Amino acid sequence: MHIKQLLPALVAAAVLAGCSPTYNWRDYTPADGAFRVLFPAKPATHTRAIDLGGIKVDMTMTAAEVEGTTFAVGTAVAPDAALAQATLPAMRQALLRNIGADAAKAQDAGKDGTLHVDAVGKGNK
């Protein structure tokens, strides 16, 4: 088989692989418009009151699960900006504890007063 004959088949295979039903990517924006994110499946949203370093806030988790992998965004609104900054270390610690991640291996990438943590958890057992 010549390369010219093989190339269309490879392109078709790549396109079909990108259309896998496993990942059904969709845009999600919460009602307040605070962020926009892509989820690989229809996300569910849950809100509950939590304590972050002595500050009571409502935490909203929006998540979707595909084949045992959870994709999630968590948000909490503090009463004022100073309190919001004070809650970030507690939020980071709670996140890492909840997913069973090694805090020493987690990388922080926050900018402009936000908290972005790149971590790998151990999953639910």
Write the topology of this structure:
Layout: H1 3-18, E1 26-28, E2 37-39, E3 44-52, E4 55-66, E5 69-76, H2 81-99, E6 107-108, E7 117-118
Antiparallel strand pairs: 1-2, 3-4, 4-5, 6-7
Task: Give a short synopsis of this structure.
By secondary structure, the chain is of the alpha+beta class. It has one domain.
- In helices, the fraction of residues equals 25-40%
* Percent of sequence in beta strands: 25-35%
Topology as a string of helices (H) and strands (E):
HEEEEEHEE
Outline the biggest β-sheet.
Answer: 3 strands, antiparallel
Q: How far apart, in Å, are the first and last alpha carbons?
A: 49 Å
Residue stretches low in confidence (pLDDT < 50, at least 5 long) are none
Shape: globular
Work out the number of β strands.
7
Q: SS-based structural class? A: alpha+beta
Q: Supply the number of structural domains.
A: 1
- What is the count of helical runs? 2
Q: How are the strands of the largest sheet arranged?
A: 3-4-5
Mean pLDDT: 79
